[in-house]
Write a structure and sequence with these properties.
Layout (H helix, E strand, L loop, with lengths): L1 H4 L2 H20 L2 E6 L4 H19 L3 E6 L2 H9 L5 E3 L2 H8 L4 E9 L5 E2 L1 E6 L7 H6 L5 E4 L5 H12 L6 H4 L2 E4 L2 H9 L5 E5 H10 L1 H4 L2 E6 L3 E2 L2 E5 L4 H13 L5 H11 L1 E6 L6 H16 L6 H29 L3
Parallel strand pairs: 1-2, 1-3, 7-8, 7-9
Antiparallel strand pairs: 3-12, 4-12, 4-13, 5-11, 6-9, 6-10
């Protein structure tokens, strides 16, 4: 009996059983991952009322993982430390890759707008009046870019403001650093950089929170509309839990004045509507173009290395495209 109890097979079985028990326990708590463009504790405080309502609706404790680090939030979704997230489109594209997660909803703005815009901002007394002034003065201005994983702070301006004008930021500007939307705004307001990326959503918030600094900043370029942010959940969540989460968000604000007040006054939204991975198709196109462009402009790579990298990118985005297109076909009932 002692020999059987302590056999390798028994040891392996015990480990598997313990792991299974841990997974069941972990599934009893849902963690929502959030990107913070302000102080982490401010974001946590703003979302707490909604998360408390969510906990009651789904019958499970709901925790928040809040970070200013884009990579940390995506990693949390991909490795299972978080189960639900509100992300920008570019981050959502990365999170769903490999079918780790899926889009289930999209935020709805108070004004009913379909999206927001990326912007380039300068100090109010800057000689820069528009994109052409930037193009004409290579090596003149300092530039504060967004996080490489940001849709509005990096991907959209890279394509629409720079690539279409045949500009590579790293070589066109006198200096290039990266920051969050709020850090970019403050740096421009203080005159520490000549130009920075931002977006219309954060600019509206910063106008209210920092009115004096806002007077020192001017927008010189705006992008086409970027689709409103998606909400995603882990693909491996039980179907019953997915259904509870979807029902909660899609109906939030419709059942009580208190919820409507949270949406209106704290989150600045009118609600959430159903969405799918298909909303990320245009973002995937932009991301593929941007990565192919950076690969082609990389002087450190030989032609053979560039071709190999391009082939890898086409293969990767081919798989992503299949995932997004399949999602679109399912939405149409095919």
């Amino acid at each position: 009996m002692r020999k059987t109890l302590f056999s390798p097979l028994f040891a392996i079985s015990s480990v598997v059983l313990a792991a299974a028990t841990f997974q069941v326990q972990a599934a009893e708590k849902i963690t929502v991952a959030l990107i913070s463009t302000q102080a982490v504790e401010d974001t946590r405080k703003e979302w707490r009322p909604l998360l408390d309502d969510m906990s009651k609706a789904i019958g499970a404790p709901v925790d928040a993982l809040v970070s200013t680090n884009y990579s940390e939030v995506v990693a949390a979704i991909r490795d299972g430390r978080a189960h639900v997230s509100w992300l920008g489109n570019k981050l959502a594209l990365e999170a769903i890759e490999g079918d780790k997660a899926q889009v289930f909803a999209q935020v709805v703005k108070k004004d009913g707008s379909q999206g927001y815009k990326s912007v380039l901002i300068v100090p109010v007394n800057s000689p820069i009046r528009g994109l052409e002034d930037i193009v004409a003065k290579k090596g003149t201005y300092s530039f504060m870019n967004g996080d490489p994983k940001s849709t509005s702070g990096f991907l959209v301006p890279f394509y629409y403001a720079f690539s279409l004008k045949k500009i590579t930021p790293d070589t066109h500007f006198k200096s290039v650093v990266s920051g969050s939307h709020q850090k970019n705004f403050v740096a421009v307001a203080k005159g520490e950089v000549d130009l920075a990326t931002n977006n219309t959503e954060d600019m509206e918030r910063l106008q209210k929170e920092m009115p004096e600094e806002f007077k020192k900043v001017r927008v010189v370029w705006s992008s086409p509309i970027i689709p409103n942010d998606p909400l995603i959940y882990r693909s491996d969540l039980p179907d019953a839990m997915k259904g509870k989460i979807e029902t909660f968000f899609l109906n939030y604000g419709k059942r009580s004045k208190e919820q409507g007040k949270i949406l209106d006054e704290i989150l600045k939204l009118s609600g959430f509507k159903k969405s799918t991975n298909a909303q990320l198709i245009p973002i995937a196109d932009l991301e593929l173009f941007s990565q192919l462009r950076r690969n082609q402009d990389d002087d450190k790579k030989s032609p053979a290395e560039k071709q190999k990298a391009a082939d890898a990118l086409m293969s990767r985005f081919g798989s992503l495209s299949a995932l997004l297109t399949m999602d679109r076909m399912e939405k149409r009932g095919k």
